[in-house]
Specification:
137 residues; alpha/beta; 7 helices; 15% strand
Length: 137
């Protein structure tokens, strides 16, 4: 069984993608997007990378718990024979319950975090304080 590589796409600015994220997306490994409708997915489209999107599931699942379980099941099935990339808006760690569902399934995962530009938008003093508190928490 392959592993699921969770790639955080950040907020949508292509120049904020990490080099590791770009290399993985361009590697030829199958790419699954949580949604192709978020600005962060535009980089995948601009680079003409083939992908599968889970957008159609949003209209068929009764709630987000069902949606996340369905996405996790699809990813686990796809990863039975090879590694796959699950590209998500944001960091890839926070606020994506599909990651929690994958953890519960016990599947092997690697997380490549995206750059969160929230800190970059804070005044320098607040951003520095947030980094210092986070580093020692």
């Amino acid at each position: 069984m392959g592993k699921i590589i969770i790639v955080g796409l950040g907020s949508g600015e292509p120049d904020l993608l990490t080099r590791r994220a770009e290399n993985l997306l361009r590697s030829g490994t199958p790419v699954y997007l949580r949604t192709a409708l978020h600005p962060s997915a535009q980089v995948v489209q601009q680079w003409k990378i083939a992908y599968v999107s889970f957008d159609e599931l949003y209209g068929t699942c009764e709630d987000f718990d069902a949606l996340n379980a369905q996405i996790a099941a699809c990813l686990c099935h796809a990863a039975q024979s090879a590694d796959v990339i699950y590209a998500v808006p944001g960091q890839g760690i926070c606020a994506d319950e599909t990651v929690s569902a994958l953890l519960q399934a016990g599947v092997e995962m690697e997380i490549v975090p995206g750059v969160d530009e929230t800190l970059a938008r804070l005044p320098l003093r607040q951003a520095t304080a947030a980094i210092a508190r986070d580093g020692y928490a």
